[in-house]
From TrEMBL:
Alphabetized UniProt keyword annotations: Hydrogen ion transport, Ion transport, Transport
GO BP annotations listed: synaptic vesicle lumen acidification
Molecular functions per Gene Ontology: proton-transporting ATPase activity, rotational mechanism
Organism for this UniProt entry: Aquila chrysaetos chrysaetos
Sequence similarity: Belongs to the V-ATPase F subunit family.
Stated name of the protein: V-type proton ATPase subunit F
Secretion signal, residue range per the UniProt entry: none
Name of encoding gene: ATP6V1F
SUPFAM superfamilies: AtpF-like
Function text: Subunit of the V1 complex of vacuolar(H+)-ATPase (V-ATPase), a multisubunit enzyme composed of a peripheral complex (V1) that hydrolyzes ATP and a membrane integral complex (V0) that translocates protons. V-ATPase is responsible for acidifying and maintaining the pH of intracellular compartments and in some cell types, is targeted to the plasma membrane, where it is responsible for acidifying the extracellular environment.
Subunit structure and binding partners: V-ATPase is a heteromultimeric enzyme made up of two complexes: the ATP-hydrolytic V1 complex and the proton translocation V0 complex.
UniProt keyword annotation of Membrane present: no
Length: 119
């Protein structure tokens, strides 16, 4: 990775992932593993979690974008990740709007500040 930045990984439905791929985030690592997963109805929970964990272990990934509805399915794995990199960010999808009360990063950030700090 000398001289290159970190990648963004994406886990989500076809429309979400396609949008990011059209924006240029798609890459293959030296083992020809992609930095994205299109989750369809037949995609198993084990495959989603395995892909998420593989993204966490890759040194070339700096940010993981995951649809919030998928993050809910593997919440235990998302909550267990505590390192600063890769950063895990929950995003909305076409069928599921964003719910800030479920976002693990936002919940952690709220614990750092009092209401008076935010005024």
């Amino acid at each position: 990775m000398s001289g290159r930045g970190k990648l963004i990984a994406v886990l989500g439905d076809e429309d979400t992932v396609t949008g990011f791929l059209l924006g240029g985030v798609g890459e293959l690592d030296k083992h020809r593993k992609p930095n994205f997963l299109v989750v369809e109805k037949e995609t198993s929970l084990a495959e989603i979690e395995e892909t998420f964990r593989s993204f966490l272990s890759r040194e070339d990934i700096g940010i993981i974008l995951i649809s919030q509805c998928l993050a809910e399915l593997i919440r235990h794995a998302v909550e267990a990740h505590s390192r600063p990199l890769p950063a895990v960010l929950e995003i909305p999808s076409k069928e599921h709007p964003y719910d800030p009360t479920k976002d693990s990063v936002l919940r952690r950030a709220r614990g750092l500040f009092t209401p008076d700090d935010l005024r």
